[in-house]
Amino acid sequence: MHAPSKVHPQVQARPQLQAHTRFPAQAQHPGHAGGDATGSPSGPSEEHVFQRLLANRIVFLGSAVEDAMANAICAKLLLLAADDPTADIYLYINSPGGSVSAGMAIYDTMQYVSNDVATVALGLAGSMAQVLLTAGAPGKRYALPRSQVLMHQPSGGIGGGSSDIAIQATQMLATKRLLQQLIALHSGQPVERIEADADRDRWFTAEQAREYGLVDHVLHRAGELTDGPAGGPAGGLAGGPAGGLHGGLVDVSARHDRVPRHGGPAPETRVARPA
Fold this sequence. Notes:
- With 275 residues, the protein is α/β, with parallel strands linked by helices.
- Helix content is 32%, strand content 15%.
């Protein structure tokens, strides 16, 4: 006879809202900034690649959005901003979305730093990742030709007593409304249209995302990246005077003034920098 197994008390985790594509979890791939949940590279070869990317002001969001990964992304944004508070930062996104709270940490950091954060979608920018894509600096939001963008409302499980369920439901509705307002702010679409379109899964091709206002450009070549909302080509991954990964892409000596966000003033979540 087997000895009876010990019964361990169950600790109920706090409910966490998700803005995530409803697919099986993606396998980890080199697009993630490292080999584990914290964004740490899994080997010397990957470490060298991501060090080179970071040295060229490139941050890669390549997995589901969760707390450890979001902390790593925020740390990199803050590091690059401290290194040069004027040069653009490039956030490449291939993610199905994930935790709303983790995604909002990245969003707020993007708005907090003085740098323009250019966003580039490749593969999939879904759900919370779509919000981050659309929150890039005006005129500097890109999608590769065969990337897909998914917009929908957040979801999450609720439980506990009736009072807890009511509180959680209220919080979920407030989060849904906040995300709709942010998408409307950055896309220029009315909140009412975002509310209607995001009620169910709304898929966009790269060109449809551009027409809707979720991105500004469909990017076919790295040389098509611009150095500002009205700027011309600024070099590419293999070209430009700097000779690095982006070549002439990053101009550290000059920067266009930040353009007001689409649809109105900067969001309330933006934190003012000290004088």
